[in-house]
Amino acid sequence: MECTHRVAIPPPQPFVKSLKCSLKETFFPDDPLRQFKNQPPSRKLVLGLHYFFPILQWAPRYTFEFLKSDLVSGITVASLAIPQGISYAKLANLPPILGLYSSFVPPLAYAMMGSSRDLAVGTVAVPSLLLASMLGNEVNANENPKLYLHLAFTATFFAGVFQASLGLLRLGFIVDFLSHATIVGFMAGAATVVCLQQLKEILGLDQFTHATDLVSVLRSVFSQTHEWRWESGVLGCCSLFFLISTRYFSKRKPNFFWISAIAPLTSVVLGSLLVYLIHAEKHGVQVVGELKKGLNPVSLGDLEFFSPYLKATIKTGIITGVIGFAEGIAVGRSFAMFKNYHIDGNKEMIAFGMMNIAGSCTSCYLTTGPFSRAAVNYSAGCKTALSNIVMAIAVMFTLLFLTPLFHYTPLVVLAAIIISAMLCLIDYEAAIHLWQVDKFDFVVCISAYIGVVFGSVEIGLVIAMAISLLRVLLFIARPRTMVLGNLPNSTIFRNAEQYPNASNVPGVLILQIDAPIYFVNASYLRERIARWIDEEEDRIKSSGETCLQYVIMVMSAVGNIDTSGISMLEEIKKAIDRRGLKLVLANPGGEVMKKLHKSKFVENMGQECIYLTVGEAVAGCKYMLQTCKSNPVIVAETRNLT
Amino acid sequence: MECTHRVAIPPPQPFVKSLKCSLKETFFPDDPLRQFKNQPPSRKLVLGLHYFFPILQWAPRYTFEFLKSDLVSGITVASLAIPQGISYAKLANLPPILGLYSSFVPPLAYAMMGSSRDLAVGTVAVPSLLLASMLGNEVNANENPKLYLHLAFTATFFAGVFQASLGLLRLGFIVDFLSHATIVGFMAGAATVVCLQQLKEILGLDQFTHATDLVSVLRSVFSQTHEWRWESGVLGCCSLFFLISTRYFSKRKPNFFWISAIAPLTSVVLGSLLVYLIHAEKHGVQVVGELKKGLNPVSLGDLEFFSPYLKATIKTGIITGVIGFAEGIAVGRSFAMFKNYHIDGNKEMIAFGMMNIAGSCTSCYLTTGPFSRAAVNYSAGCKTALSNIVMAIAVMFTLLFLTPLFHYTPLVVLAAIIISAMLCLIDYEAAIHLWQVDKFDFVVCISAYIGVVFGSVEIGLVIAMAISLLRVLLFIARPRTMVLGNLPNSTIFRNAEQYPNASNVPGVLILQIDAPIYFVNASYLRERIARWIDEEEDRIKSSGETCLQYVIMVMSAVGNIDTSGISMLEEIKKAIDRRGLKLVLANPGGEVMKKLHKSKFVENMGQECIYLTVGEAVAGCKYMLQTCKSNPVIVAETRNLT
């Protein structure tokens, strides 16, 4: 019996080279330095500048056509950004004007350094709420507004530093640890929590709990039913109805996307007018109050690096930074996919980081690329990041000249704007899809939701991530093993459960292992394989087939093996030998083969027992079985020897 | 073109059934209830009793032959157990008599419930040291010996409860998370630390640091050079030389195993005699002092459940419990393998737990199955767990009548016994083997060692486990992708790097992914696959081959996929379509196929693009390529359409 092919042992590689290779795969999978190869130094400098400042790349090729599109989209986004900015700043317990400041400097910074053409930079709801709840645990925003403000700048600074350094260290992949299911559940939970917080404004309450969980909020709301103000409630519901119906309309007629884009500004204008005309501020409708005219004041001196709250500030910065970035990169990537261009996560991370560092020095708090603005920007036909500059200029005009107009803006209208934006984030269809496709992902999603709504934003996030990682570990710790059978009229061997017409080969048990063999699963595999053999022998005994002689282990899906795994294989081999059977390996990969060779397992086993394909392994076993049948003494002797 | 086989979509299974099935695989991989199936209730009861009390199984078949062997081995082990027990109790800062107590009750409990025939139960060095260092942080053993003693009993109780409940909950697999490499490094580190602690006795010092790290110990030793006692040192070195040389001799002549087994007792007897005769206790040689005669007093009332140290006690119990059990089960399994019988980890865990609970109520501290005793037991030819009972009876006699003989036993001889036992645990050959076979495992091993020696036992353990788990996660987060080529004269496709003679198929790129597609690697794979295609197109451009038309993704090693992975596949498909190429899948497994089907990916892609083998996929692509070549207009049109 002869095989055409032998399993190759890859040639030994010098340790340093293989280390370098695997470090490169881990940290530079996208090979960002590829374009720098074989270039003269001057060209390298230019490419480097292009890398960090994509504006240098697209600005020279900018056309008048682009400008027209970017002007329209920038102004449309600004009309959304202004009311949203004020609302989210209220959510973060910060002065409303900060929302406008944050829509001025960061978009300019992003336009220089960002590589997405569709992102429109601004503040977002979930990090705003997180900032309020995490810093609120340390400092009361109402009692000590100045310190609270300074801590918010400092947290933003740390968020920026964290984002930029992750990007520089090529660690952007940590956002990949937030799975799709985690994000769906987390976002829905956060949206629910944010909406619950708006009950304060909608019902016109003065006192409200600082906690964010459902139970505390409902207790706070229902403990003061006598304080509810119907005027506020009516105005809130009307605005909400207006906002939702315009969104619905725009969804139906995509050409009228601008209707839903300007709806928030319209409701602010109408609400302010109404309050001004009927003096509703004296009848329980709270208003924004005075907004200072003028551009962002410098806040570099306000950063508190030596306060007793430093630890809490850093923690807030890191968590809000990660969540902000995760939203930004997800949005950026989705739109990049629509338009077929590439976004480098690490480079974006640096851009976001620099933008937040710049923001923290100019009275801005955490910004990222929110979905709502990017969607409006995209629908309005933006072409480049210039739309961010246009938006920033529009906000600048507002800051310089129009702030007094917001004096009478009712808070409840801002609350309605937040609620209507949040409702889009509760993606129940995605949750249903998760349930249909992958129950485990559904569990992750629901735990994130429940954790956020009944615990806190951090608890939800930690639970969901822990469950997601547990699943990955479980895949390795409890790999599937399956029996393969022969598909009729072929030399193909496949899982007998998936292909019921696959028939087993008499005298041979073919087992496939579906994961790398590591210490976490070595003991499990040892027991599971022993059980497969037991079960097969029981089955054979009751059916009276040829008794079992060979166990073929199919290693196609075993990507790697560690020393615990090799010991396990040695033990399995001994156990199989002791039963009078013979172990045969089929198709071990390069990495596995290298290690089996180094540990002398290949030598002990005999390379003739390692086959390239399952078909050849089975053919080899069959050949041996026939030889034995025609000469049964050999079998008996072989059995005694082992 | 026709394919003989189609990729089957496994029939949908009811959710409850598949959940039950995967829970069973996770917690009952060894199917312990198998023997209970189809049995009458009375038989089930008997089997259940046999399960929890294996003594009922072997006692009825016990023979006189067995008794002879067990008597010899039990007495030999006792001669090792008595000096070892006293030494380790000193190591744990507990009264020496506790070491004897702990060799009396627990072995009796284990003989009833344990399923190993070779384990000889007793105290061990590493958990003893851990107990001293962890409880020592809370209570000073010299200043408050009574409280310290009670806390030690309580910690033992919690260790027992923890072990038993893990066993009952079928969670014994958590010890699998201690990889072989971690254990090698950890044990060597712990042995180094234990030996360092013995410098106190060897040099005859009164004062000594409570810390266990190398730096603190050396500082403590060299800060009091004037206190060193040469008498103690000489006696210690002589004993150590005697012990090591007997071990060496026994290793050379396996028939004289008993020489190394009784060497500790011999050195204790000789040392005590010497001290008694020359009154060395008055010349700087510290002695054990008085040992109380009599059996274990009941200590149930001494358990401190309401002390302020409860948290520390529970933590100590859990950590010492896990480490003790890990050693015991590893030793038990190794000897079971030699003798070809099976040990159920969860059942053993229950036995260890009950043994420690019983011990904590009878003045014993943490016990397990130490390697040294099991090795002596095995070499002495033990047949059943009765050797434990024999040993316990021998210890009982010692407790009742012989304790006064240990009054003059020099502590330095006990220190020598500990050192000589510890030296075996520094397995440098295993570390060299790790370096040769698997560099990553070597890093794990060395970090465990350095962590233990320079930090503390817990730090070393945590670092090593974190690195080991990181490796598992990294395997999933950065799966290998490789290009397959055709082996000459076959339809076999294998990794082109492993098989340099594999040739690529013109116009077709065959990519294999080596891990399940989960959220942690979805982004990576998207970028990596895009890069493979870029590189292939660059290569083709420079070589002028047929331009790329098909990308075949080989899914053989993709064991599972989650919803993030499915989105990634959809994105890849879109990206490939947009380049004017076509995506083809080869050999997706049952689980993957099920999810791709549920998420409508199969439908979108067209089932005709999913092939059962790489060979068929390539044949399909080639067929299409030929059709296109003979009719190039179609290609152009297809390209424009996509």
Walkthrough of the structure:
The structure is a homodimer of 642-residue chains. With 642 residues, chain A is mainly alpha-helical. Chain A has two domains: 65-472, no CATH class; 478-641, STAS domain (Transcription Regulator spoIIAA), CATH 3.30.750.24. Helix content of chain A is 62%, strand content 4%. Chain A has helices spanning 15-27, 41-52, 55-58, 64-91, 97-101, 105-113, 125-136, 145-168, 180-202, 214-222, 230-252, 257-278, 310-339, 345-360, 371-379, 386-402, 411-423, 428-437, 439-455, 457-477, 519-543, 563-578, 590-598, 601-605, 614-630, 632-641, and strands spanning 481-486, 493-495, 508-513, 550-554, 582-586, 610-611. In chain A, strands 2-1-3-4-5-6 form a six-stranded mixed β-sheet. In chain A, α21 links the parallel β3 (508-513) and β4 (550-554). In chain A, α6 runs antiparallel to α14 and α9 (180-202) packs antiparallel against α18. The two termini of chain A are 22 Å apart. Residues 633-642 of chain A have low confidence and may be disordered. At the A-B interface, α1, α9, α18, α19 and α20 of A face α1, α9, α18, α19 and α20 of B. Chains A, B: Residues 498-621 form the STAS domain. Chains A, B: It is found in: Membrane. Chains A, B: This is STAS domain-containing protein.
